[in-house]
Every structure is written in C-alpha cells, then in structure tokens.
Design goal:
Layout: H1 2-6, H2 9-12, E1 15-18, E2 33-36, H3 41-57, H4 67-85, H5 89-110, H6 114-141, H7 155-179, H8 186-201, H9 204-207, H10 215-237, H11 242-261, H12 265-284, E3 287-288, H13 290-296, H14 321-324, H15 326-346, E4 351-352, H16 358-380, H17 392-407, H18 409-414, H19 424-456, H20 460-476
Parallel strand pairs: 3-4
Antiparallel strand pairs: 1-2
Helix pairs in contact: 3-4, 3-8, 3-12, 3-16, 4-5, 4-8, 5-6, 5-8, 6-7, 7-8, 7-11, 8-12, 10-11, 10-15, 11-12, 11-15, 12-16, 15-17
Length: 480
Amino acid sequence: MATLATLLWPRAAPLTMALPGWQPAEKFTQSLTFGIEPQTWPLGFGLCMLNLAVLLTTDKGPTGTGAWAEIGSLAITGFGLLAVVAANPLTLLLIWTAFDLLELGTMVLANTDADTGGRAVRAFSWRLLASGLLLWAGIASSAPGTETVFGSLSPGANLLLVLAAAVRLGTAARLGSLSSRATIPSGPRVSLDLTAITAAAAVLPRVALNPTSGLLPAALMVSLSIAALAAAWRWLRSGGGASARAHWILACGSLAAFAALRGAPNAASAWTTALILGGGVLLLNTKRSATLNRALLLGTWSISALPFSLTAATWAGVSGIALVLLPAAAVAQGLLMAGYVLHTPRGAGEEVLDERPAWIRRAYPMGLGGLVIAGMVAGVWGWEGAGVVGGWQVAAGIAALSVALVTFHKPLMRWSPATAGVSGRYALYAGRVAAFVQPSFSWLQRVSGAVTATLEGEGAVMWTLLFLVLLVSLLAGAAP
C-alpha cells in the first residue's frame, strides 16, 4: 500500500502539512511540518521498493525471520518516509534522534563483543554531532514569529546541513561493518542500514534549493570530489563484504552532497536513490543464480547518467568550480559503474537459488528485480529529473571508461604503488608529511578520547539530561 501511495506523490506535490503547535504557542514557534516535494519522490519510492524487496527476499519459517522482524522492517521504512517528507529542521532532528537510539540499542544488544559495543557508542556520539549541526542550522535561520523550513534557510545554514549529512553518511559507512557482526537477520539489518542512510541524505535535495557560493562551499566541493574518487577507487578494488558496502555509501553519498552544493536538487536526489537501490541489490543478493546475476547488471543503467537514466541530470548545467572538478567526479562515477558490474556476481552467497523451495525461486527474483526496475522507472517518470537527456557527452565518456575498467580490471587488481615503483622519493615525501601531521592527529585523538570517556562514564545520564534541557531551552527561545 505504501508503494502504491508513493506513486500518487507526483500528483500531490508540492504539499505541506503542519501538525498542531506545542503549547504555549508564544514559546514554541516551530511545529512538526511535513511536505511532499517533486525532488524527494524518488527517495520515497526507492525506500518502499527496498522494503518490498526485503520482504520478498528474506527467508521465512523456522530458520528464517519471524513476523516481528517483518513488522520491524515496516516500522523502520515508515520512519524513513517521515524523514524524506520532513520539511523543517525540528522535524528531521526528532526523526534522526529516533534512528540514533534505535541503532544504538540494536548494536549494543545484538553484539556480545564489548569492543563492538564501545564502537557503536562512539558512532552514536558522531551522530549526536550531526544532530547538533542540524539544530545549529535551524537556530541560525530562525526569526521571531516565523516558521523555519528547508527552503528558507540561509546559505550558511545550508552548509551546516551538508556537513551534518556528511557526518551521518560517514558514520553509517563505519557502522555498517558493525551491523554485519550483529545477530540480526539479514533482511531487517539491510532495511535498518539503508533506511538510516536515506534519512541522513534526505536533506540534501532540499539543501540544493538554495545554491551556495563562496570559498567555503568551493573547498567542500573539492573535498567531496576527492572523497568520491578515493571511495570509488577502493570500491572497485575491494573484494566485497562490509568494506565494499562502506565504499559504496561514501562514493554515492559524496556525489549526492557534491550535487547539493552546486545547486542541483535533481542530481542530489538521483544519487541518493541510486545509493538505496544499488545498495539493496548488492546487500540482498545472497543466493547464487547465473541468470539472475546477469539480469541484475541492468542496474548499471541507473548510475550511468546516460539519457533517460536515473542519474541523467547529474551533468546538466555544470558551471563554475563544479566544471573544474567535473573530471574527478566523472572518473568516480566510472569507477562506481565498473565496480557494480564486478561486484554484483560476487555478492551472491554459497546458497543456490534453484535448490530452494518453489515460492522462494519466484519471490526472490521479484524482490531484487523490483529494485532494478524501480531505478529504470524513476529515470523516465514521476518527477522533475525524469526523462532528462542531461550531459550525454560526459555520460558517454564515463560509460567508455567503465567498459575499459571492466575489461582490464585484472591488471588493476594487481596494481599497487609499491609494485608500480611509486615508493622511493614519493614515499619519502609522504613519510615527511605524515610525520608533520601526526602530532595534530594524536592531539585530536586524545581530545576525542576525553570526550568519549566523559559521555560514557558515570556522569553520562547527567550529561544527557543537560543536553535535553539545553535543547528545550533553545527551541523555546529562552536563555539556557
């Protein structure tokens, strides 16, 4: 039903709905507000198709997941949809907090390893930092007597939102390696991981409504292009597993944030949707089937940026600093495409699909195939970025690069700086640079350790209450 309902979003957009305000009204000027925007439709559609794929591909019965796990997946998807339609910082902050508490409790309770539980708590601390950036953005753009929504934020607040999304995406990539160790069924785990990522990146299409300019946005765009290139390269060379998932998240998330900063909401929405659909295919593909694996390669079309594909709007209207950084981002996209082609067959586990019961042989391809079809549908229908020709010249070059990478991937897999003769003088320079910055990193590590020890110690409850009081004071407009 939710999937069918999202198909009606294009007819309803734009639509805004605000819940009744908190009392007293003179103190709380902000209320929970939700809105359907054209550029957010692919995210909602992708989330619903992901949940449908999880339900169809997860084993049932004594050895599989039970009804409660499926109910949990549905509830998680519902929270993700609320994040997609959140129209102001307050609404998104509450949804982020719910996800943070859910993931923290899941990781701590489902992991018996003390070290893993401690790393989950540190990941929660980073997400609190992202929530603080979101709160700061809302306060910086608030004015007495007016309600703050994402379309009315200042350029500085938009930068804070991009930073908040980047912190959460980076933490999600880190936390993915932890969730793979948890005693959680694979289907609900994939649903939780990718829905939390969607909630983190859902703000990026709305940030792009206010294009930013200046030195700091340009520096962020340079950093994001480098991050996308490095993550995509490691994604291509990775052998699969949790590390491959982290590189996929970082590469797609960096390209989405890059598009948001250059004022391209359709491109930001497209890359976030590609992250969901492509990640779902890679993580849910756990049964071997040669025919199905070949069919799943059609998902490469969604990340190709070719005309009428999901990401076709990526290179349309590129100008300014984004035009200078286009080669790095384009190469990153080519690496992503090649890695998708190489990793899709590797993602399958040892279990053979043809040896499973008849209903699984029918439902399993429907679930994974639905994700591929959803990417194709979003490329031609339903929103402003559909049916776009885009920068087809750049897309053609990227497609040629990805074909070359797939063809010659074996020599690339064997290549390393040491075997390529890069050691010598360049390694000496790299060692000097590392020795120069090492004290700074050591100092930051000690500060981080002190903060973590404070928040995790006996006074953790006191600090939590203090932060809650501060939050309520800021929202009420009173002095803390």
